[in-house]
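Q: Is it fine to ask for two folds in a single conversation?
A: Yes, each is treated on its own. Send the first.
Q: Here.
A: Result:
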Amino acid sequence: MTTVAIVPEPTDSGRLAYRAISGSRQSLGKTAGEALDALTASLPREEAGTLVIVQHHHPDELFTAQQQARLRELMSRWRALRDASTTLPPGEQAELDALVEAEVRAAGERAAALLKKLEP
C-alpha cells in the first residue's frame, strides 16, 4: 500500500495550498483532495491502492504542541531561505529533519493504532 503525506503550504498570496508526497513523487493542489488526486493519478498501477487517514494535526502525546510550534518555525525559516536560494544552518537543518522524522513516526503509530481498532 502506498503511503501519502499531505501537508499545507502557505502561498505567496497568503492562502494555503496542499502538497501530497509519496516517496519521490509530489503534487500540489488548492485543496488536500486535489493534491491527492493529482498524486494518485501519477502512481503506477501496482501502487494505486491508497488508504487515506486525515490527521488534523492536534498536539498529542506522540507529537506535542512544542514540537509542532518548533516545526512550524523551522519550516517557515526553511521556506524563506529556500526562496532566497540559501539553506538553513546545519544544526537547524538537523533539528528540522529530526522533527519531520518524529512527526512521520507519530503518524505511523497513530495509523497502526487505528488499524488495530479496525481489525476484527
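Q: Second one now.
A: Result:
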Amino acid sequence: MRHVLFICDSNTCRSPIARTVLERMLAERGLQNLMAVDSAALDTSPPTSASKGAKKAITGTYGSDLLAQYPPKPVSDELLAATDVILTMERDQTKGMPADRTFTLREYAGSSGDIDDPAFSQDYEDCIRDIRSCIEAALPRLLADLKPAGEPQPPDADLSS
C-alpha cells in the first residue's frame, strides 16, 4: 500500500482536516484500500488532540466528529521514510523534507500559495472548504502517482464525486 502524509505546524487543524477529507473522499469512491493517509506536526511536541475548531468543522461537514480520538504527532524520520507523497500546508514547511516527494497541497493540486492557518483567523469553515477543493483537484494526480507500478487505475474509480 502506498502512503500520503499531510504536514502542518502543530497537527491540530489543517493536516488532520486534510487527512480526514482525503480518507472520506477515498471511501466515498470505494478507493480506501488504495492508499494509507496520515498527518503529522513539524512541532516536536504537538498538543494531545485536534483543535476544537477543526473538530467542529469536520463535524459540520461530515455529521460526526471524526477527529474525536485523533492524537497529533510529530514528523519522524521513520514516518517520512514510509511515505510516498508528502503534502504541506505552507511553502516554508517543505524545508528539510525529501525534495522529490514533498509539495505544498496547493502546488500538488495545480495552484499556488499556502493554506492559511485557521488558528489565527478562526475561520475553520473556510479552511475546510479550501482543503477540500485542493484535495478534489489533487485526487486524480494522487491516484496516478500512488498506484503500484504496472497497475491500471480502477475502471470504476469515479473521481467526479
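Q: Anything structural to flag on that second result?
A: Two points. Helices lie at 14-28, 52-62, 77-81, 105-108, 118-121, 124-146. The domain at 2-146 is CATH 3.40.50.2300 (Rossmann fold).
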